[in-house]
Amino acid sequence: MMTTTEVKTFKMIAEMQIDQISGGAIYFLAEGDRIVWSLASDNFRIKALEVGQKLNTQSCTLKAINEKKTLTMKIPRSVYGTRIIATSMPVVDETGVVSGAVTIVYPRLHPVAAAFDEFAPILSEMFPEGVLLYVTDLHKIINRQGSKEFDIPNVTVGYELKESDIASKTIKSKSISVEEVDANRYGVPVLILNHPMFDEDNADVVVGTFGMVIPKGVAFQLREMSNNVDDSLGGVSAAIEELASSAAQIHSNERELNTALKEVNKFTDEINTVLTFIREIAEKTNMLGLNAAIEAARAGDSGRGFSVVANEIRKLSSQIKSSVPKIKSLTENIKNKVDDTGKISEITLQASEEQSAATEEITASIEEISSLTEELNKISQKL
Fold it and tell me: Which pLDDT tens digit goes with each residue over 282-292?
């Protein structure tokens, strides 16, 4: 217990050390169920513990007065809006009667939050591209640690959490949250990881979060490159497929053309056979015309008309005979041209077959490159 004289000393010491307490503190003196004196650090204040406020019947202070002994209690967030640890010591007057109590209140921090100032500076230097570490309670950021390589100045202690913030989502879901943010928000693309911090006495109650903001410049560039390559390969692949389809059609057309040229060659051979037959007929007709002319001459005047007919037959036979070499020459020229075209067709056919095989190889290579870009994308996501 503490005497009224010792209370005066306590107040003097409190005023000297209040601003040196990490995390803040509140000292107050209660007489009965009212606070008559209070001292709070700048970074930690609770309106319900200011001078003139009436104490809750279940408060640590009133329990210490009633039980006449020093008590320490963990006060849940539901009482004052924040978790605290309160230690109350009864005060006795000159007659030994308990007249009130002196209470010291500290914010109750999660072990991670309490040790943040110790481990955060070390941890922040372990990331080659830098990192921003921070701790929140249920409403705001309560501590932060940037690194030399990376920091976000506008993420400050006291920043009020918005519903869209990842910390708010973590608090609501009670589970780890991961979010990728593009360069529009912080100037560079980042990966944010947020881990819930649970009440030490109740593993189902979230009391805050621990977060990490990691720049994703290199990984983002890799992912953009892999996406661009993948898109480009998709377009190339489509073009190759269209080319392969065209090559297949060309190959089919060339095969049909080659077959048709062979048929033309066959027809020219048949024409030459017919021309030989026509020449033979012409020769026989000419002979018959000659014989007819001789017989007409023997017949004298009575055979003169027949002689005219015989001469005409011989002329026609001569004309037919003289046309046969010309036709044969034309068919030979056609055959030669067809042979030349056939050779070109054979070369084109072979080229189209090689082109078709090449497009299949290119398609296979593109599929392999696409597979590699998928792996690159997966690696960039892990960075």
Answer: 666 666 666 66
Amino acid letter for position 132: L
Look up residue 26 and give its two tokens: 């509140």
Q: Which DSSP string do the residues of 317-365 spell out, in sequence order?
A: HHHHHHHHHHHHHHHHHHHHHHHHHHHHHHHHHHHHHHHHHHHHHHHHH
Residues 209, 194 contacting (CB under 8 angstroms): yes
Q: Rounded CA gap, 77 and 199, in Å?
A: 11
The CA-atom distances, in angstroms, between 12 and each of 8, 93, 107, 126, 358 are 7, 19, 22, 44, 92
β-strands 202-215, 190-199 pairing: antiparallel
User: pLDDT per residue over 189-244, tens digit each?
Assistant: 888 999 999 988 888 999 999 999 988 765 555 555 555 555 555 555 565 566 55
Rounded Cα distance between 371 and 376, Å, is: 9
**Which residues neighbour 16 within 8 Å (Cβ) at sequence distance 6 or greater?**
none
Coil/strand/helix, residue 133: strand
Coil, strand, or helix at residue 224? helix
Q: Answer yes or no: are the C-beta atoms of 255 and 349 closer than 8 Å.
A: yes
- How many angstroms separate the CA atoms of 304 and 316, rounded? 19
* Element at 55 (helix H, strand E): none
